[in-house]
Amino acid sequence: MTGFARLPFERQKLLVTATLMLALVALLRRFFPFRAIAARTRHPDAPHAAPARQEELIAAIRWAIWAAARRVPWRAQCFEQGFAAQWLLTRRHVPTTLHYGVANRADEGMVAHVWVRAGDVDVVGCNGIDEFTELARFPLAPADRSTA
């Protein structure tokens, strides 16, 4: 029996969903600019889940994104992982913020990075973010939307 087959059904379903979401983001990234993809971010419409439930969802989606990203035949980096995590959590009414930043590294030059947080909880891509200067965050706050 494979590792996937041994997973509980809910985990299997979440892993498949995360894989499909990573594929969608990779496809969008190939054909659309960052700003067009970022425009698809939004705050959840429904009431937020209870904090304990949010932490369970965040942990489950973090696991699914990480597990799927390691197994897909393309490079699912911070961009794909960040948008996939944000969209999966938003669908489950967990508010998140996707951050976009840059750093100037001596060995690599200018590098960009995407990370996602749900309130003060790290979702994906949050290791080493102190070296990055945040350029934008999505979704935009309601006041920022009118000027965007």
Topology:
Elements: H1 3-6, H2 9-31, H3 34-38, H4 51-71, H5 78-91, E1 97-105, E2 109-118, E3 121-124, E4 133-138, H6 142-145
Descriptive notes:
The chain has 148 residues and is of the alpha+beta class. The protein has one domain (7-145). 48% of the residues lie in helices and 20% in strands. It has helices at 3-6, 9-31, 34-38, 51-71, 78-91, 142-145, and strands at 97-105, 109-118, 121-124, 133-138.
Which terms would index this structure?
148 residues, alpha+beta, four-stranded antiparallel β-sheet, 4 strands, 48% helix, globular, disordered C terminus
Produce a short descriptive summary.
The chain is α+β, with helices and mostly antiparallel strands and 148 residues long. The protein has helices spanning 3-6, 9-31, 34-38, 51-71, 78-91, 142-145, and strands at residues 97-105, 109-118, 121-124, 133-138. It contains 6 helices and 4 strands.
